[in-house]
From TrEMBL:
Keywords of this entry: Activator, ANK repeat, Cell membrane, Developmental protein, Differentiation, Disulfide bond, EGF-like domain, Glycoprotein, Membrane, Notch signaling pathway, Nucleus, Repeat, Signal, Transcription, Transcription regulation, Transmembrane, Transmembrane helix
Example GO biological process: larval development
Domain LNR residue range list: 114-154, 155-196
Membrane topology classification: Single-pass type I membrane protein
Pfam families with a match to the protein in the record: EGF (PF00008), Notch (PF00066)
Major place of residence: membrane
PROSITE patterns named in the record: ASX_HYDROXYL, EGF_1, EGF_3, LNR
This protein's record includes keyword Magnesium: no
One Gene Ontology term of the molecular function aspect: calcium ion binding
CDD domains attached to this UniProt entry: EGF_CA
Gene name of the encoded protein: Notch
Subcellular location as annotated: Cell membrane; Nucleus
Name by which UniProt lists this protein: Notch
GO cellular component: cell surface; plasma membrane; receptor complex; RNA polymerase II transcription regulator complex
Length: 219
């Protein structure tokens, strides 16, 4: 260790060492540090308020900073919402590689396998072919649904009721026994009992007297 050249790697905190014209060395320090060996924290990175959540706490570090995030927030600057996060020290979140293209390619591969299994021919043959009962193979034309042959066989609605089955929207064309009542999408949820009557109705329930304010399905 000579102390006068760069062989000993004297520069700290990412500083770059260079030989001085007059002998010895000099350190080119990164922003936020100074000193002969870049050992001094010369900038408070928290002054710029980098933490993006109002409840986050910023702590200055040598040439850097960290954010302590409140619950449900993550990221270097607590800039991302994550309902599973307990909070704490924020870390830079590396974006996940876009996997849509992967899934598209994988789905295409599965569909090629469906062709090899002759699933298009087997679809709708009123027999459950388990090897074809997948999304890529169109679920064997619904032959395996509910463990019976095509449960929509008797459904004559003008729309494909199996495509809108249980989607949360009432399709009247499918609201019949043959079309499996549209997955019960047309059943109306009961509204809550009028709060003016609620406590009264509970107290006077089945007391032998008809209280017209309580004489409804909600109460």
């Amino acid at each position: 260790f000579s102390g006068y050249d760069c062989d000993s790697d004297p520069c700290q905190n990412g500083g770059v060492c260079r030989i001085s014209d007059g002998g010895g060395y000099a350190c080119d320090c990164p922003i936020g540090t100074s000193g002969t060996n870049c050992e001094i924290d010369s900038l408070n990175e928290c002054d710029s308020n980098p933490c993006q959540h109002p409840d986050a706490i910023c702590q200055d570090k040598l040439g850097d900073y960290v954010c302590y995030c409140p619950p449900k927030h993550v990221g270097k600057n607590c800039e991302l919402y994550d309902h599973n996060s307990p909070g704490g020290l924020g870390h830079a979140v590396i974006p996940r590689t876009d996997i849509n293209s992967f899934y598209t390619k994988d789905l295409e591969k599965q569909r090629q396998e469906c062709l090899q299994k002759n699933c298009p021919i087997k679809r709708g043959n009123f027999r459950c072919d388990e090897e074809c009962n997948t999304y890529a193979c169109d679920f064997d034309g619904n032959d395996c649904s509910l463990g019976i042959n095509n449960p929509w066989a008797n459904c004559t609605a003008p729309i494909k009721c199996w495509d809108v089955f249980g989607n949360g929207v009432c399709d009247e064309d499918c609201n019949n026994p043959q079309c499996l009542f549209d997955g019960r999408d047309c059943e109306k949820l009961l509204q809550p009992c009028n709060p003016i009557y609620d406590a009264y109705c509970q107290k006077h329930y089945a007391n032998g007297h008809c209280d017209y304010g309580c004489n409804n399905a909600e109460c």
